[in-house]
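Q: For a teaching handout, I want to show students what a protein-ligand complex looks like in token form. Below are the inputs, and the small molecule is 5-phosphoarabinonic acid. Please produce the holo structure.
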Amino acid sequence: MIKLDYENCMTKKIGKEGISIRELENYYKKFSKIHSTIIKKSQDKDIPLGWLYLPFNQHIDKILDLAKSLRWKYDNFVVVGIGGSALGNIALQTALKDKNWNNLTTKHRAGWLRLFVLDNVDPTTMKSFLENIDIKRTIINVISKAGNTVESLATFFILYDKLVKNVGKKNANKQIIISTDREKGYLRELANKGLCRESFVVPSNVGGRFSVLSSVGLVSAACTGVDIKELLSGAKNMAMKCGVKEDIVENHKIKHINPAYIFATINHIFYKKEKKLCVMMPYSDQLYSFSDWFRQLWAESLGKAKDVNGKIINVGPTPIKALGVTDQHSQIQLYREGPNDKIIVFLSVDKHTVNGKSVEIKIPHLDKKLFADHYLFGLTLNKLIKSEEHGTRVSLTQANRPNMTISFPQINENTVGEFIYMLELATAYAGEMFNINAFDQPGVELGKNYTYALLGRKGFEKYLKELKICFK
Ligand code: PA5
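A: Here is the structure, written as tokens, with 5-phosphoarabinonic acid included.
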């Protein structure tokens, strides 16, 4: 399983900048209460904690059948969605498929589909996409929990139009998959009209940024050949380790503190010590998109104006993404010598693999006459990236900069499933520690309303007046 090492956050390692054992123990005393509050809340259908049980109660047969029926028949799978309806899809693809996946031949992809995710509404990206995609060989999966999200609908309308122009109205539906709420929203209306070959339900008790292990993330993953059973099984292992399904107390004693709780605890303690920035820094290109996914999860869940009682508190740690080793040549100077206001979370990979097989790239011995005898000759990139990671860790620790490491024995469906679940649960625990509602996003709404007003959507005229006052 993945492991969390937080030694370099402790006073023993980084002196007064760190956390004392006593501080940790004070949080551990609260574990049982915080954990059971979350489990209790998850029984309330109005609180979106349904993601806690996704690894246990999902029926994935329909997804697997769909993936089988599309394999070898289509070339491209396009996800149209944004935020929680896109970032998990990108992260799974980046972590679990070849970096060059979309350029591989059908044979090399074993008939599985290429993946494109259209989240932003940049006209130049869209122009290039429309000019280059073979729409006749393309499946479009429009994903929106709300079913009305403006960016996703706009992109879907453009793609639908192109599809109809190329294959006709009747055939177009065979290439559309809709993932949305069971009952509500515009997309559900389209699905009910039969405008798709298949529709999937985004469970109402699973919030967008917690939905990667629902149909939202699983459909596109299955269609590109990701083993979604293993992904869920990894998540389930983490859920079991965290005591989501069983009693965490035995003979009046807590069995063990779980890594999700430790992650939340350390972040919360440092936040109170004015270290409010959390940098996620994978030493792996494959895990880089998970920093984006984490950024949304952490920021949108924990950045809140009010506490649960309505008192204004304006809290929230700021998640930042960085990449090892690339950002050693860009960010590390600041992280080591600038303000000591961050915690660095390294994502570390023990064994680099492709399709389960170990990958090692040797630096060759070159012609001595031309290159002399260079110390790099005969080493491997594996050794280089590990040494750089370790060097950075030590240099930060020496400067009393808190850092922790999440280690992956290797990157595969299992470990990725564990990682996703651990951070989702950590977010829920952190929400309790900050005493906020981690599952809403009221701050996103006002900007949306102004946009609707500018676009002429009915019912939003009042916002035009406010816009005029701002831009006299
Ligand atoms: O976490 C969230 O709720 C949001 O970031 C949503 O995922 C995002 O706004 C997209 O929403 P929807 O899936 O309803 O289109």
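A: Two things your students might notice: The pocket of 5-phosphoarabinonic acid is lined by residues 82-85, 144-146, 149, 152, 207-209, 300, 441 (CB under 6 Å). The chain is about 45% helix and 15% strand.
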